[in-house]
Amino acid sequence: MPTALDILIGAPWDPGPNGLIVLVGDEPFLAGEWLAWLRRGSAGGVDTDPDRPDPGRRDAGDWGWREFDGHALGDARDVFDEAATIPLFGGSTRVAVVRGADAFVTANRERLETLAGRDRGAAGIVVLEVKSFPSNTRLAKAVAARNAQIDLTVPPKYDLGRWLADWAQRRHGRRLAK
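Given the sequence above, the corresponding structure tokens read:
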């Protein structure tokens, strides 16, 4: 399972034809950074380095992007309809993000299993941000088989302080003291 930090550092990962991506863990900063990375244009092999000029890079205008609060979501059909709606103009990809989606997953497990087991075709992507995702469920197995589960924990092999210093320099032009 790829980690969000691996992907943010530059490990190759592409959502491919997946209609469902699951972010697992309790690290909201990494979740936000990974979602920003995706929104900047990771799909389709587009360069995701925000510091490198790239006229082909997608920006927020190339995405039909909508975020939902999983704790306040009234009707799950809103999420599925958002991702399934084919854009009228252009080739943009629709993305429906459910933040805090643990209860959403429990309530919509069957529909999510169907979504996880097939290619999205012309439809968009549903991204779920959950704190836990037990690996012994059919849904978790289907998501893992398609390399669509992203771990939000920081692996012990990383020097997190160094990564944060690099991030602050790249993103904000600020140097962090040791």
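The chain has a mean pLDDT of 82. Try to locate this feature in the token string yourself.
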